[in-house]
Amino acid sequence: MISAKDIEAGIEAIDPMANPLVAADSYLALAEQTLELWLYSKNLTPTNDKKEGFRLLALHRQGAKGDPSFNACRETCRELAYRYNVVTGSDRADIQQEAATGMTHLARHLALFISGKMQIAGLGDFCCASKPIRTNEQEMF
Amino acid sequence: MSETKKYKKVAYYPGCALEGTAHAYNRSTKALGKELGLELDEVDNWNCCGAMEVKNIDPKIQTYLSSRVMSIAANDMGHDVVMAPCNGCYHNLKKAEYDLSHDEKSKQVVEKLSTKAGHETYKAGQVETIHALDWIKDAIGEEGLKERVKKSLSGMKIANYYGCMYTRPRHIFPEKDQGPGSESTTKPHFMDDLLEAAGAENVDFALKTACCGGAHTLSDSDTSTKLVLNIIEAAEASGAEVIATECPTCHSGLEMHQIRAEKVLGRKTNVKIVYFTQLLGLAMGLSPRKVGIQENISDSIGLLKEKGLT
To answer: How far apart are CA B32 and CA B47, in angstroms?
Structure first.
């Protein structure tokens, strides 16, 4: 299984300007592998299903089940899917390059967020996408 | 001048951060409101919203603390709108509102604690909690801002960073995602709209709502620094000269980790971190001092001079 470090290195090795189409595929694959890492750490088998045409979004949904703090990276995944569509749907090199460059930062963010979360589960709790409204409830009153 | 619509006079809940690290946000919010003819009536004897510390121990105590602020605004001061510029406060008041509308146990706890504390119990629906973005957007609007611009932000490229708490979790913001004119939880745009009306050029920024690691800025600084550096580098890659903020936690996180990234990781970035209220204030002709530019850690004065905003 690929490590978080390898994923981060893989992202850094991609040049979005040289061939945005190839780069977009690679970013998407690395983002999926990032989510797989999270699921494996929870002893779950990553789904092969797709949501709205993307396995990435199905993997995110799987990861967020029972852990609302995982929604802190929901928009990152959706934005990756959006920019992937821009790269593959446009025939203008400048637009493809710009969207692929955006994917660099998004894929990196996802890798950093997930690897951070694997060290400190509370990452993302602040946004309370998080604290389910009545979990950890203590009967204090 | 365009007529102001809603929110001309609101209860103002600055929250703890705006009295400390985010004093510039407080100063610029008040100065901007005054310049725009909007009245802010600060909530009497307000308390902490419960932030995240209390919520992590018992979410219901946070619900009570936030409800007390809303109770004072509604029952003691007669307001029906509370404006909170801090994303954390805004989020927590909205969460308390949701809890009190949907959870009987929360209502009982709030009733019990309010009675014990000797103030009237807040009832769901007594006030509407809004963010500073809603305030300007609805009270003045883009057209109203355009008419009032004295020093256009023209030529300034801005990445608008909303952070995580302004839109999440979606269910506590029922007014969002309601079609044209409403705010989006997936791609927020109110700050973009307002700054564009003041003449700025918004860049296509991929990490508008990305986590900055704010909650772990002390316990796991390296993760926070890497997350922030990536956000800042994404803004720079989009061509931004400024990252506009609307959350004190995000703002101070971006400022501090920008410096730390240079020291620890050797990665220097130049984008400036400025509150959206400071930018709008400058566009309305207020001086940098009046909107607290000197209080920011991120030194933007050179850029502001270059853009003719000083």
So the answer is: 24
- The verdict on residue A98 lying in a domain is yes
Question: 10 Å Cβ neighbour count for A94?
Answer: 9
Q: Which fold has domain B151-306?
A: Rossmann fold (3.40.50)
Q: Name chain B contacts of A95, Cβ cutoff 8 Å.
A: none
- Nearest CB among A75, A123, A141 relative to B186 is that of A75
Measured distance CA(B259)–CA(B109) in Å, rounded: 44
A11 contact B CB<8A: no
A:113-132 residues touching chain B, CB 8 A cutoff: 113, 116, 119-120, 122-131
Contacts of residue B193, Cβ cutoff 8 Å, sequence gap at least 6: B137, B142
Chain A residue numbers touching B233 (CB-CB < 8 A)? 105
Give the pLDDT score at A141: 42
Q: How far apart are CA B40 and CA B9, in angstroms?
A: 6
Q: What is the ipTM of this complex?
A: 0.84
Taking CB atoms and an 8 Å limit, are A128 and B91 in contact across chains? yes
Say if A133 falls within a structural domain.
Answer: no
**Domain membership of residue A74 as a residue range:** 4-119
* pLDDT tens, residue by residue, A34-82: 999 999 988 999 999 999 999 999 999 999 998 877 888 999 999 999 9
The contacts of residue B113 (CB under 8 Å, 6+ apart) are A141, B61, B64
- Asked, for residue A53, whether it belongs to a domain, the answer is yes
Taken in order B298, B218, B18, B129, the sign of the CA dihedral is: positive
Q: Which residues of A touch B117 (CB under 8 A)?
A: none
Contact flag B238-A119 (C-beta cutoff 8 Å): no
Query: Which is nearest to B242 in space by CA: B161, B152, B157?
Result: B157
A95 found inside a domain = yes
Q: Which CATH code fits B9-130? A: 1.20.1050.140
Q: What is the CATH number of the domain that holds A100?
A: 1.20.120
Decide if B223 and A119 are in contact by the 8 Å CB cutoff: yes
